[in-house]
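Appendix B, example 12.
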Amino acid sequence: MKSPTSQELQTLAEHQLVLSYNKKPPQPPHNQWSQLDEAKVLLRAEPNLLFRKTEYTVLHSFLAGKINHQLSGVFNATGELGTGKTTTIRRFVEVTGLRLNDAHNAFSVIWKQLTTQTVSSNKAQTLLNEHFSGAKVREISTILLIDDVDFLSRSKPEVISNILNWSNQCRSKVIVITTANSMDWLERVVTGQEIKTLLFNSYTSDQLEKIIKDRLIGNFSFDPNAIQLAAKNGDGNAKAALSLCYLAIKLVKSNYPGISQITRLHIAEITHLIQVKQHKDMQKKRELLQTMPKTVLNNNNTYIWLEISCMTLFLWFI
């Protein structure tokens, strides 16, 4: 079978760039579902890639250059949680791996993905080191994604060093993409090759607000002020902001039957609950619960505050 030329690969990559960047999430069914049920599905659907066009283009250029010139390399996407690192990478790499409790198990997982063979981790490590040794020129490029590499490198830095070393073999055609919340993992990992690093900055509140609205296109279960507060309380983290919206729906459906729209007060209440849960001090938990913001309906069917506290006011104005 004839291998594609470099020009053909470049054309294909450019075509995929246009198609994948504007990928739309699947729409939920509309049969007898409430707006809140639809919103839960939309908030968890595959997102559009907003405010990451520059990062997308940089990664596309890196991968296209390595593949077209049959080279190896390492690309590290770093940034705080919820800044779009994995979402951007998923536009290029189909994630088929597993979340591992032991980093050493990565060898058996990778070997099985390459060959469908199940072997022990030690055996897989030996086989993979031979496979990517450079003794034989690989016909195609192999792209490996290590998500949360900073977490994995804490327990088994030698495993990460071993994997990165494959990309150091000139004929292995191994491209390793890593994501991390910080750069400190490089101090624990021994590597002799240059690593291309790209910083993903935190989102602004306005950007998070637009990300939430983009997820909820055609759905009217959120008051605009609720979306605004969720974006502010997300603190630059898209995952956190979207989770606030998702959990607010669960709160309303379980505690406020008959309510069909999420308001700013529901977002404040769920934010407070999360803060309570995060505290390890039981006395502090009780104190926070006593200042829990609660919402009720008055005779005019409008929301009013009960038990306003300093914490509540903080949530209201941030």
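The mean pLDDT is 79. The longest strand covers residues 73-79.
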